[in-house]
Design brief:
- This protein is 41% helix and 21% strand.
- It has twelve helices and nine strands.
- The strands form two sheets. It has a seven-stranded antiparallel sheet. The protein has a two-stranded antiparallel ribbon with strand order 7-8.
- Helix 2 packs parallel to helix 7 and helix 4 packs antiparallel against helix 8.
- The longest helix is centred in the first third of the chain and has 24 residues.
């Protein structure tokens, strides 16, 4: 075999086991990201500060939970770091990666949910994580925006910033993972999206398959099959996840700065609380991070810190036609090709 062919084969064949430093590098990144985000949010709020709880998991691992409450901007929010290990992955993970059965596992990540006080400032969620189980490894995560009274320019800015981070690594990442996000953050029992999306991905490894979700006939799966496989190394995927994580602050903070002082009345506040109820429903019924945390005996207070401090439910609520509330349902809670629109293109 000539040396050129041998090099090609080495490039195409993933290593049997991750690097000895992979866990430490992933852990350090998510810890640093937690620090960067907390520092920036604290500075923006100007009133409240994050309170930190360190916790340990009896089966192995632990984490640090940081919660901000009763701030000028943030009514409540949390930014978590966790690092856990154990004898076997829970059933929810093994259903997707059965080859990981029989191996010890390691998982680390950061997750964040912010519930601003002002209804014109959107709720936001972020999660980036890394798993190992013997020779099996993968990255997952994403970020998405949930506005109550959205502005087109804000949604375009959010998506464009995330897309730029994706494009720096592969031009097919954003269109594939945006479609997956629209599929994932969807309340099936309500038949409506949770918000305006962002990106979502899971089980990203050297095999190169973009979509690894449960719907083989959905738009994300169809798009992924059209693209085909994109072989990537651990380092390449790690660099991609780092870029996505560090795109959060420039994607979200300008929106908060524009909307934080917008005047609102009890009408907007009550609609915000009603829509927060949808957030609760999603996180308790569908959210994979919640399921994983509970199945692996994580710290319950840290797992459920994503829930809002106040929410309400109203029987058979229907927005009045022609109102901003109706606009949310009719336009913003339907998948849109946000990055290819300009504000002038929208007559809303």
């Amino acid at each position: 075999m000539n040396s050129h062919l041998a090099n090609q084969l080495r490039e195409q064949t993933p290593p049997a086991y991750p690097s000895a430093y992979s866990r430490q590098k992933a852990k350090q990144f998510v810890q640093d990201l937690q620090d960067e985000i907390c520092q920036a949010l604290q500075q923006l709020d100007g009133k409240a500060r994050f309170q930190e709880d360190n916790w340990e998991r009896a089966e192995g691992g632990g984490g640090r939970t940081r919660v901000i409450r009763d701030g000028r901007v943030f009514e409540q929010g949390g930014v978590n770091f966790s690092e856990v290990w154990g004898d076997s992955l829970p059933a929810s993970i093994l259903a997707q990666r059965p080859e990981a059965a029989g191996h010890n596992f390691y998982a680390t990540g950061t997750s964040m949910v912010l519930h601003p006080r002002n209804p014109y400032v959107p709720t936001v969620h972020l999660n980036y994580r890394y798993f190992e189980a013997g020779p099996i490894w993968w990255f997952g995560g994403g970020v998405d925006l949930t506005p109550y009274y959205p502005f087109v320019e804000d949604v375009i800015h959010f998506h464009s910033t995330i897309k730029n981070a994706c494009d720096a690594h592969h031009l097919e990442y954003y269109p594939a993972f945006k479609r997956w996000c629209d599929e994932y953050f969807y309340l099936k029992h309500r038949q409506e999206a949770r918000g305006v999306g962002g990106i979502f991905f899971d089980y990203q490894d050297a095999r190169g398959k973009l979509y690894c979700g449960p719907d083989p006939e959905g738009e994300a799966a169809i798009y992924s099959r059209q693209v085909g496989t994109i072989p990537r190394s651990w380092e390449e995927l790690f660099a991609f996840v780092q870029s996505c994580g560090r795109a959060f602050l420039p994607a979200y903070l300008p929106i908060v700065e524009r909307r934080q002082d917008t005047q609102y009345s009890d009408r907007e506040r009550q609609f915000q609380l009603y829509r927060r109820g949808r957030y609760v429903e999603f996180n308790l019924v569908y959210d994979r991070g919640t399921v994983f945390g509970l199945q692996t005996n994580g710290r319950t207070e840290s797992i459920l810190m994503s829930l809002p401090p106040l929410a309400r439910w109203e029987y058979n609520y229907q927005p009045q036609p022609g109102t901003p509330e109706a606009q949310l349902y009719e336009v913003f809670l339907k998948p849109q090709d946000w990055v290819n629109w300009s504000v002038e293109d929208w007559s809303i």
